Amino acid sequence: MNILVTGGAGYIGSHTASAVEKSGHTPIVVDNFSTGHRWAVGSRLVLEGDLADESLVRLALRKYRPHAVIHFAASAYVGESIKEPRKYFWNNVVNTLKLLDAMTDLGVRTFVYSSTCATYGLPQRVPVSEDQPQCPVNPYGESKLFVERMLRWYQEAYDLRWVALRYFNAAGASEHHGECHDPETHLIPLAIQAALTGSILSIFGTDYPTEDGTAIRDYIHVDDLASAHLLAVEYLLKDGASRAFNLGSGRGYSIRQVVKMVEQVSRRNVSCRDAERRPGDPPVLVAENRAAADILGWTPRKSSLREIVESAWLWHSKTAEQRITPDVG
Q: Which residues are tagged catalytic?
């Protein structure tokens, strides 16, 4: 079957497009390459353009008649969203609205949505379950929650069937693709960069009420995330009820634990400096992931901290040894 993958040249989107292909289905990638990478698409069918271009979206839906849409295309920097909220509401809300309208008009009614644990804001309890209140503390999380709310009404009015997958901390790499953001804001690639280059890693907050004073996060391997999207498509096509699922390993690691693991795997020192907490950062974010296991049959298979860091180290160190940026070729 054909599956339309918006943002399929990005970090998680390209891994999911690869998983779709390996499962025997055909991914049709739509990406404007503003943050995605051409090398991440490979030989897959790709339509270059923005979801703001309604004619392109409708052409893709009419021509390829996908059985489902997996929607990744979005702006995804928390700090930037605070400085430029209108960018986030245009890209993440308005453009998604255009996509949903095109889908419902053309009879495509299976939708898997890339959401985020940022919709919870500061959680009331940990681990975080899907029924906790959603109170975002930044425009990024608010924009994602806005779409989740739209989906409920689109189902009621237009029979759109959907799954929202709330990621915790995507991490790790496959053989051919790892995290390559500009700017890079995620801990594991920044720690690896410090190990490779001698740069200094900032630790934002060392006075949290945790064992070592640094924030604790739940890391999930990008390949495990990709597999969840396929399972969500299969679940919906078998008449599964629309709902949200948390995607996390169910285990948390502190920043210092992550840094230590990078040092162990790389056999290099990671220089760190203490910095002030970032506003809105909760002390602990760990997923309750039983719903995804029980209902989707999803199991994170590569998401131990060591496996995540080893896979990321292999990819980043390989690109460094080749003395190229990953976007060349």
A: 140
